[in-house]
C-alpha cells in the first residue's frame, strides 16, 4: 500500500512540476529596453517640419503564448519631459502644451487584440485597440503593430497619426503667434522588449 501511495505522491509532484514549467514557458512578461527602442513624433509648422524624440520610456509586454503572438497585455509609458527636439525653445513650448507640470507621462495601454496574422519567420501583424493618454485626456484608438518575435527579444513597430486637438492640446505657437504648429502629428515607434 505504501508503494502505491509513494508512487501516487511522486506522480502528483511530477504533474505539478510539469504544469508549472509549462505555464512558465507559455506565459511570459518582457520589459521594454529604453536604449534599443525609439519613439519619434513628427509634425509641421508654418516655418518647417519638425520631430521630437522620446529619451525615456518604460513598458511591459505580456504573452499568453509568445510563439503564436498571443498578447495578454501591453503598457508603455513615456516621460513627457524626455521629449527632446534639440531646440530648447521648442521643448519649452512642447512641455507647456502638454502641461507637463501636471501630467508627467504619456501612456498607452492595450485594451483589445482584434486580429493576429502570422506573416512567417516570427513576424506577425496585430490589429489592436488601446488607450492613449496625453495631457490628462484618454482616447481609445485602433493600432496596427508589426511584431517580430525572436528567441532573445520582441520588437513592436508601428505608427499612429492623430490631431493634437483630439487630446485638447492647443498646437504650440512661437514669436507672438507668427510661427504656428500644425494640428496633425504622427508617432512612429520601434519598441524592443526582452
Alpha-beta classification: alpha+beta
Hey, roughly how much beta strand do the residues contain? over 45%
CATH topology: Lipocalin
Unreliable stretches, pLDDT < 50, 5 or more residues? 14-25
Most strands sheet = 12 strands, antiparallel
Tally of domains: 1
**Corresponding CATH architecture:** Beta Barrel
Rg, alpha carbons: 22 Å
CATH C-level class is Mainly Beta
Number of strands: 12
State the end-to-end distance.
50 Å
Query: Helix content range of the residues, please?
Result: 10-25%
Q: Write the CATH homologous superfamily.
A: Lipid/polyisoprenoid-binding, YceI-like
Shape: elongated
Look at the structure and give the mean pLDDT.
86
| Number of helical segments with 4 or more residues | 2
Helix/strand order, N-terminal first: HEEEEEEHEEEEEE
Structure in words:
The protein has helices at 2-26, 88-98, and strands spanning 28-31, 38-45, 50-54, 57-65, 70-79, 83-84, 105-120, 123-134, 137-149, 154-163, 173-174, 179-193. The protein starts with a helix and ends with a strand. Strands 1, 2, 3, 4, 5, 6, 7, 8, 9, 10, 11 and 12 form a twelve-stranded antiparallel β-sheet that branches. The protein has two helices and twelve strands, in the order αββββββαββββββ. Strand 8 (123-134) and strand 9 form a beta hairpin. It has a single domain, classed as Beta Barrel (Lipocalin). It is of the alpha+beta class and 194 residues long. It comes from Aestuariibaculum sediminum. InterPro entries: Lipid/polyisoprenoid-bd_YceI (IPR007372), TTHA0802/YceI-like_sf (IPR036761). Residues 29-194 form the Lipid/polyisoprenoid-binding YceI-like domain. Pfam families: YceI.
Amino acid at each position: 500500500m505504501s508503494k502505491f501511495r509513494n508512487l501516487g505522491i511522486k506522480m502528483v509532484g511530477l504533474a505539478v512540476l510539469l504544469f508549472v514549467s509549462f505555464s512558465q514557458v507559455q506565459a511570459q512578461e518582457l520589459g521594454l529596453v529604453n536604449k534599443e527602442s525609439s519613439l519619434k513624433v513628427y509634425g509641421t509648422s508654418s516655418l518647417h517640419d519638425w520631430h521630437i524624440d522620446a529619451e525615456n520610456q518604460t513598458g511591459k509586454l505580456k504573452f499568453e503564448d509568445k510563439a503564436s503572438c498571443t498578447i495578454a497585455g501591453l503598457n508603455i509609458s513615456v516621460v513627457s519631459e524626455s521629449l527632446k527636439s534639440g531646440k530648447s525653445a521648442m521643448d519649452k513650448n512642447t512641455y507647456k502644451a502638454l502641461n507637463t507640470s501636471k501630467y508627467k507621462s504619456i501612456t498607452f495601454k492595450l485594451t483589445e487584440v482584434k486580429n493576429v496574422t502570422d506573416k512567417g519567420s516570427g513576424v506577425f501583424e496585430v490589429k489592436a485597440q488601446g488607450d492613449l493618454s496625453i495631457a490628462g485626456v484618454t482616447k481609445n484608438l485602433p493600432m496596427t503593430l508589426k511584431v517580430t518575435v525572436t528567441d532573445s527579444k520582441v520588437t513592436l513597430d508601428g505608427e499612429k497619426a492623430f490631431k493634437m486637438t483630439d487630446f485638447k492640446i492647443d498646437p504650440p505657437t512661437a514669436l507672438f503667434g507668427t510661427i504656428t504648429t500644425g494640428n496633425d502629428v504622427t508617432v512612429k515607434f520601434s519598441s524592443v522588449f526582452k
